[in-house]
Amino acid sequence: AANFRNFTFIPLSGEFSRGRGLDVGARFWKGSNVLLFFCDVDIYFTSEFLNTCRLNTQPGKKVFYPVLFSQYNPAIIYGHHDAVPHLEQQLVIKKETGFWRDFGFGMTCQYRSDFINIGGFDLDIKGWGGEDVHLYRKYLHSSLIVVRTPVRGLFHLWHEKRCVDELTPEQYKMCMQSKAMNEASHGQLGMLVFRHEIEAHLRKQKQKTSSKKT
Fold first, then answer.
1. Residue 96 counted as domain residue
2. Where are the beta strands (DSSP E) in 46-181?
3. Tens digit of pLDDT for each residue in 167-193?
4. 152-163 residue pLDDT tens
């Protein structure tokens, strides 16, 4: 944020609501029609992605819902390395390092006029999750074209996820599903589960080799 001089801080009170915060921010702008990019704090994006964002949106015609690449837990992925690589070196699109987050609809590019005309976010949804899917479905049932495709240059960075008790049952289920998918691939998780068995096998093989030498 230190590199950006032109921004407005809008203080809000009350219970946390992601949808309300984004909705207030979008409606606060009073200038000409602008292209909005709804983005979370755990997202890394490049300037190339911003160009893709512009190319796939058109006021009154189309909105953009990119599928981003979600990073697995670096501590698991690089556990066999001497150290976890720097962030820029981790942002590699491979099946071993992450997955395409095709169930997420929170990152989106759309013109403010389309956002206002469609009715914005559902402000009755509190806390985490649900408001982005609701907005996406409204666009699907509108006359606008919804562009949905995987893109490079847009990454969800891994972080520890807590699913708090205050969430509704549906929100809690969504949170736990997201948490489970974020850690590692099925194969990598399987190796963790059977790690002790694998280590025991390696020790036995090492002992056999030592016995033969003596």
1. yes
2. 62-64, 67-71, 98-100, 108-111, 145-147, 150-156
3. 888 888 888 887 777 876 666 666 666
4. 999 999 988 788
